[in-house]
TrEMBL record:
InterPro entries: AAA+_ATPase (IPR003593), ABC1_TM_dom (IPR011527), ABC1_TM_sf (IPR036640), ABC_transporter-like_ATP-bd (IPR003439), ABC_transporter-like_CS (IPR017871), P-loop_NTPase (IPR027417), Type_1_exporter (IPR039421). The keyword Nucleus does not apply. Its main location: membrane. It comes from the Bacteria. It comes from Phototrophicus methaneseepsis. It is found in: Cell membrane. GO terms for molecular function: ABC-type oligopeptide transporter activity; ATP binding; ATP hydrolysis activity. This is ABC transporter ATP-binding protein. Keywords: ATP-binding, Cell membrane, Membrane, Nucleotide-binding, Transmembrane, Transmembrane helix, Transport.
Amino acid sequence: MAVNTALLDEDENIEVSLSDSYLTGMLWEFLSPYKWQLVGVMVLLFAVSGITVLLPYLIKLAIDGPITDGDMNGLIPIGVGYLVAVVALFAMRFAYTYWLQTIGQNALLNLRQRLYEHIIKQDMAYFSKTPVGKIISRMSNDIEALTELLSTSIVMVISSGVTLIGLVIVMLALNWRLALISFSVMPIMIAASAYFRAKIRVVSSHFHRVMAEYQAYLNEQFNGMLIVQLFNRQQQTRKDFDKVNQDYLNAHITQRDIYTYYGSLLQFLTTVGMAIVLYGGGYGVLAEWATIGMLVAFIQYTRDSFDPILQLSEQFAQIQSAFSAGERIARMLMVEPQVQQRPQTKAIDHFDQSIVFDNVCFGYEKGHDIIRGINLTVEPGQKIAIVGATGAGKTTLVKLLGRYYDIDSGRILVSGTDIRDLSFEDLRHYISIVPQNPYCFNGTVADNLRLFKSDITLEQMESAAETSCANRFIDRLPGKYDYELLPGGGNLSQGERQLLALARALIHSPESILVLDEATSNIDTETEVYIQEAMDRILEGRTAIIIAHRLSTVRDADRIVVMSQGQIVEQGSHDELLAQNGMYAQLYHRQFAEEMLA
Ligand SMILES: Nc1ncnc2c1ncn2[C@@H]1O[C@H](COP(=O)(O)OP(=O)(O)OP(=O)(O)O)[C@@H](O)[C@H]1O
């Protein structure tokens, strides 16, 4: 079984390559509200670097001064000074880490907010093409990589850079001979870091790819667990999982090996560096161009100067991965919905519930039309049933009416106004769609009816549930409206979910045009009778479009429209269509025969 790599694809169709300065600009947009705090952090960083450089010098002062002279009183101010400097160092490190973490987290909070707002305004074309796992990965893994950058890497790079520069200057100023001896292993260390940095980047991007494959595999298998179990594929998926699991381990081991070699080499070079300083410095003391205090201070300086090099090389790998995460986020933020609300919208003065499809053409992909020149007028208050073979384009037509997608040519008018001239809010207010597979959110039945609108009363819910017949199952649930639904409404049947969605539509848009997409296809025959009664009540005086597979449910419609391959091939009343003996008659007789056999 192939691993789903959809999560890994950069398929946002954004062709531009994003420069580091663009990404820095994007991050700055979120950091800039905290610029004065950042200035404070910088001041602290400089102070910390200064104290780091000062400490070994205080040791030198103590050894070459009071200790050599046996002056205990002279040692006290230096000792106290050292203590104060160390305490200040800890306090400042704590302060800037805390401060920066807070700034970073607030900036990322705003970024997550922006990303979320951006995603929820996307159209259905976006959601049908973009795997949910990918969106979640952007909002979690990629944001996490940026957290590392904003809260740790930036501080490390700046403080390491400043400290290193400060140390080099002070060391050269104090004793250039000892300084040059201390720097002797640095070129090897820098070369080794450059070599391993390149290796680490490759290994870590491989690791991230394997990790995403692992997550994608789990996501796919758990989502499809019903099929896995129904078809006894557990053994096969276990084998596939073994492979994915092994790849994950291997990627981990490769990454660990590289870090271990690199770490060991640096340890070795540090020790060699110390030995060189000890030998060269000892020689300097004997030759009297260095003091013992100076030697001790230089041992400390040498150790201190290796740290920033290690930090810098480590952080560059982090920064690299944060920037590629930032690029993925930036690309996602650049995707604009194809279905947009016009800047100037029109309001409908008198909403008469009429609908006109005027020569409408549409295809999900260019050059492959699904809806081909549909002309259909629905008079105010009419009930139109749309029927046709599977894949005929019935649901697509309804999606166009709700502007899930924009038509390629033609017009759709609601109450005489082109739906593209309406605001989204008005359009959703005028047209209520009960989809094929209504989704239920985590929460109670009441939450799902209210849809987070707390001012909807229990009486309103009960009345809508009664009209739509949803009360027949709600009243049987333990706790009724307080019954907790499982994720996606897993503890309701599909028919019950459709009834709930119908009640929801009645509550939220009581005077809208009602579009039922096979809303009764999963309801048992007994319930269907109730639903028919309920429908008569619900649809009284309303314009409605009903897509149905069960032809028995649409017999009473004012007009039945038969679709085939994106076109209307027949229309008329039930009796007229039967008399025509065309496609509808065929469908009807076939279904009638099937029902007789069942
Ligand atoms: N998001 C999409 N992207 C590309 N093609 C799509 C998409 N949704 C549907 N289609 C295609 O459009 C055609 C019409 O689909 P539609 O869902 O409108 O049919 P339908 O008549 O409602 O079928 P059914 O009765 O089975 O629900 C089908 O061939 C389908 O494969």
